[in-house]
Each structure stands twice: as structure tokens, then as C-alpha cells.
């Protein structure tokens, strides 16, 4: 129980940090000067709702920071592995506390989608983790195999950021 409290405190502190720090000038990033477009694909596999929301908020903030730097961000988030359970409307098996975080995930994904961040889900993982494809949030595009999607985006020049 004590460990859970410490983890929640660390998560809270990280969210506060994300919300209070913006690096929108870009001056400290030497390599960014010649970049016009930042194409990134995020491989999201986190199973913990609390950690996943932290990741997704950071992805969204990174998108906003790059946009503020006039670097034309093009982001894709692919949900694979156990993360597919967190983007389903089915909340069975989750504690009330986790369900609140899953609601926050849904709200964050909606905002990300509205900002132009593409969201995809691996149907192989959906099947493996017994998630009903019809229960997947509507902002998320279904792809047969997330690894194929990841490989194709990388072949098109996207940088891979693993999130797990």
C-alpha cells in the first residue's frame, strides 16, 4: 500500500511538471534548427492506466511544443500489447480509481485527435487481449498488424519512440 502511494505521488509530480514546463522556443535544441517537420510514431504498450495517461499527456505536450516552434509535427500513436485494454469502452476488471484514469485517457485521446495526432490500434493485440473491436474508442483507426504499421511509418521517415 505504501508503494502505491509513492507511485501515485510520483505520477502526480510528473503531471505537474509536464503542465508547468513548456519548451516552445526550441533554442536549446541544436539539432532542430534545420528541421521543418517532426514525424514521430509512438509505440504505446503500457498496461497501467496511471502511467499510460502520463505518457499520452507527454506525447500531446510534445506535439504542442513542436507546433509552437513551427516544426509541423506529424504524430502517430499505435496501441499494441496490453495498452489495447485502456482504449476500450469496456471497463470490466478495472478498479474505480483505474476507471477514472481510463476516462482521462479517453478525454486526452479525443483532444489529441482533434489536434491532428493519428491514433491506431493493432487488431492482433485486440484479439490476444480479448478486447471487442467494437468497443475501441472511435478516434482510433484499426490496423490489422501494428508491427506492419510501425515498419511502414519508419520507412516513410518517421522516428520511433517506444512507450513502455
Characterize the structure shown:
The model has no long low-confidence stretch (mean pLDDT 88). The chain is α/β, with parallel strands linked by helices. It is built from 5 helices and 5 strands, in the order H-E-H-E-H-E-H-E-H-E. The chain has one domain: Hypothetical Protein Ychn, Chain: A, CATH 3.40.1260.
What is the topological layout?
Elements: H1 2-20, E1 38-44, H2 49-68, E2 73-79, H3 96-114, E3 118-122, H4 123-128, E4 141-143, H5 146-155, E5 159-163
Parallel strand pairs: 1-2, 1-5, 2-3, 3-4
- Which CATH architecture would you pick? 3-Layer(aba) Sandwich
The Rg value, from CA coordinates, equals 16 Å
Query: Uncertain spans, ≥5 residues at pLDDT below 50?
Result: none
Total helical elements? 5
CATH topology: Hypothetical Protein Ychn, Chain: A
Shape: globular
- The CATH homologous superfamily: DsrEFH-like
The CATH class is identified as: Alpha Beta
Helix content: 40-55%
Q: What is the total tally of β strands?
A: 5
**SS-based class:** alpha/beta
User: How many structural domains?
Assistant: 1
DSSP strand (E) fraction?
Answer: 15-25%
Task: Summarize the biggest pleated sheet.
Answer: 5 strands, parallel
Give, in order, the helices and strands: HEHEHEHEHE
Mean pLDDT: 88
Strand order of the largest sheet: 4-3-2-1-5
Note the gap between the termini.
23 Å
Amino acid at each position: 500500500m505504501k508503494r502505491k502511494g509513492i507511485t501515485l505521488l510520483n505520477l502526480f509530480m510528473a503531471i505537474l511538471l509536464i503542465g508547468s514546463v513548456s519548451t516552445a522556443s526550441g533554442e536549446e535544441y541544436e539539432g532542430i534548427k534545420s528541421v521543418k517537420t517532426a514525424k514521430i510514431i509512438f509505440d504505446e504498450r503500457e498496461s497501467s492506466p496511471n502511467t499510460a495517461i502520463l505518457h499520452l499527456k507527454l506525447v500531446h505536450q510534445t506535439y504542442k511544443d513542436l507546433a509552437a516552434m513551427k516544426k509541423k509535427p506529424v504524430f502517430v500513436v499505435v496501441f499494441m500489447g496490453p495498452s489495447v485494454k485502456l482504449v476500450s469502452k469496456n471497463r470490466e476488471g478495472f478498479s474505480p480509481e483505474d476507471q477514472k484514469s481510463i476516462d482521462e485517457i479517453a478525454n486526452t485521446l479525443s483532444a489529441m485527435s482533434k489536434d491532428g495526432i493519428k491514433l491506431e490500434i493493432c487488431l492482433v493485440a485486440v484479439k490476444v487481449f480479448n478486447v471487442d473491436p467494437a468497443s475501441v474508442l472511435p478516434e482510433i483507426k484499426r490496423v490489422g498488424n501494428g508491427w506492419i504499421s510501425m515498419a511502414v511509418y519508419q520507412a516513410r521517415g518517421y522516428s520511433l519512440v517506444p512507450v513502455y
